[in-house]
Amino acid sequence: MPSRTPAFSENAQMTTASLDFPASASAAPSTRRWPLLEQSYATLGSDFSLPVAVSPLPDPVLVASSAEAAALVGLTPPRTADEEHDWALAFGGHVEAVSGNSRATVYAGHQFGNWAGQLGDGRALLLGDWADADGGQHSGGYPSWEVQFKGSGLTPFSRMGDGWAVLRSSIREFLCSEAMAALGVPTTRALCLVGSSRRVRRERMETAAMVTRLSPSFVRFGHFEHFSYSGQTAQLLQLTDWVIARYCPECAAAAQPALALLQWVVARTARLIARWQAVGFIHGVMNTDNMSILGWTIDYGPFAFLDAYDPLHTPNTTDRGGRYAYGRQPAIAHWNLLALGQALLPLIDKPEHALEAVDTFRPQYVQAMQQQLAAKLGLEQLQHDDGDLFQDLLDVMAVNRSDWTLTFRLLAQLCADPQADIPAPLAAQFARDPARFSTWVMRYRARLHAEPRDDAARMQAMHAVNPAIVLRHHLAQAAIARAEDGDFSEVRQLLDALRRPFDAHALPAHYTAPPKDDAPPARLSCSS
Questions:
Q1: Are 177 and 218 in contact (CB under 8 A)?
Q2: d(CA 359, CA 270)
Q3: Active-site residue numbers?
Q4: Range of weakest confidence among 119-123, 301-305, 431-435
Q5: 433 pLDDT above the threshold of 60
Q6: CA dist 165 to 240, 309, 351, Å?
Q7: Which of 306, 293, 409, 398 lies closest to 341 in space, CA to CA?
Q8: Does residue 9 register a pLDDT over 50?
Q9: Is the pLDDT of residue 480 over 60?
Q10: Residues near 37 by Cβ (< 8 Å), separated by ≥ 6?
């Protein structure tokens, strides 16, 4: 691969004064004592990251905060206007204890299947580590959370970007991070969202915002690609050893630790993609620089959740060929893992060993996806021919353009009695070809007779895994429209609903309804 490594040093700083707006002179300083964050990633040295000062947001205002994310790091969410002011200052870049050790990390990647060289991080700054409030119980066993500002200004890796993020896309990332966590999908978390008066040009003039994100690690496939493809093998080994020591120490005892790490990432990625597919999530831009080494969801750009089931749908206007369409996400994950395997080849004895490791993705994904679909259909144990039952349902859903979320939720109402009518709301999802669906229902009911649970127990189990609400595009757009007018109430109310996705009785009806027939589908660019 060609080398596009930028020349930079520990002393390199990006001058951003010409782009800064002054902070509000009337803003009272924060009186809260915030913990000083340590920087573990900085111990890797200047080849991996550089100190870059946060560009504080002018006139910061707290748009919303997540109580669940705050609990991860032992914070109490703001309850009063004064506390919200303190949070806006701290997470808008005005408090030295929070952002005084900020650093930008360097990575590369493949974008839409093409090598793009060094990519970032052009607008996110790593602030440091925050201890998990429950000794790793919240984070899957990891002792601490890395804290990151997204949209905090230029870095030496910004290329042609301005380093800012806008309110529109920041609301989407904030809400979806917390929505995915509530759905049980591994994901980076969003602690809070701060808005600003700073003006930013995208397709139109917008205002800037900043999301504070949490993850045990923000290391991506692209971090490994950067050092491998530029011939920096010593740094590649250093990064690999650091990741293994912190996140999968069991790999260190393997004969080939880098190969063991690759196998570890393959398994976690297979489970992640199965979770995406199960909830109808379309990432929209599965470049290798947007793939987490932990197998967590990262970087919510032009994402969407399926409304009418179409496996070839992508919400990304840049993706004209549909590379990252919903139905192609498993294959793209495999492709990205091949890119990671290639990046690790200098540390693996034989290329075929890396290929063998990556090729275990497909059977692991198929098994994980079948388990997800079995749970969604209320089946306790897989049978050898259940895969055909699952695929035939997906085929008839595609023909009928059945709503993904509603269909699985409504299937819980279908009793095992072969003589019973199909509930009308469920039948309405298959109005284009009802006969084909009726044929499938007969097979499904016959399959249910092999299950030990009765209809009531199965309904309860299905409602526990099939959400009543996901972050549909029209819901996000309604919250964005009000927020851009200065009203953040809908962002906060929608967040509260997304926290309880399986509790239909606690949700307002308009949150669980599909979009209107004339509602435009999600068509989003990569700009933010």
A1: no
A2: 11
A3: 289
A4: 119-123
A5: yes
A6: 30, 31, 40
A7: 293
A8: no
A9: yes
A10: 97, 98, 101, 127, 128, 129, 130, 147
Helical ranges in 73-135 per DSSP H: 81-90, 96-99
| Of 405, 401, 380, 395, residue with least CA distance to 466 | 405
- Could you give the C-alpha distances from 447 to 128, 158, 377, 380, 422, in angstroms and in order? 52, 55, 11, 11, 16
Q: State residue 309 phi and psi, 5-degree precision.
A: -70, 120
> What are the distances in angstroms from CA 502 to CA 174, 179, 399, 462, 505?
20, 11, 27, 10, 9
pLDDT band per the 50, 70, 90 thresholds, residue 528: low
- Give the model's pLDDT for residue 393: 98
Average pLDDT score over residue span 237-241: 98
Q: State pLDDT tens for residues 51-74.
A: 999 999 999 999 999 999 999 999
Q: What is the pTM of this model?
A: 0.93
Quickly state the pLDDT bin for 527 (edges 50, 70, 90): low
No. of helices (H) and no. of strands (E), the chain: 18, 12
Q: In this structure, which amino acid lies at residue 58?
A: P
The whole-number pLDDT of residue 28 equals 65
Instruction: Look up residue 140 and give its DSSP letter.
Output: T
Q: Tell me the residue ranges of DSSP E strands in 243-378.
A: 281-282, 304-305
Angle between helices 386-400 and 434-448 (to 10 degrees): 150
CA atoms within 13 A on the CB side of 68: 18
Distance CA 59, CA 209 (A): 11
Find, among 303, 296, 301, 504, the residue nearest to 405 by Cα: 504
Task: Report CA torsion sign: 331, 289, 58, 187.
Answer: positive
- Cβ burial of 317 (10 Å; 0-12, 13-18, 19+) is middle
Residues near 144 by Cβ (< 8 Å), separated by ≥ 6? 40, 129, 130, 131, 132, 216
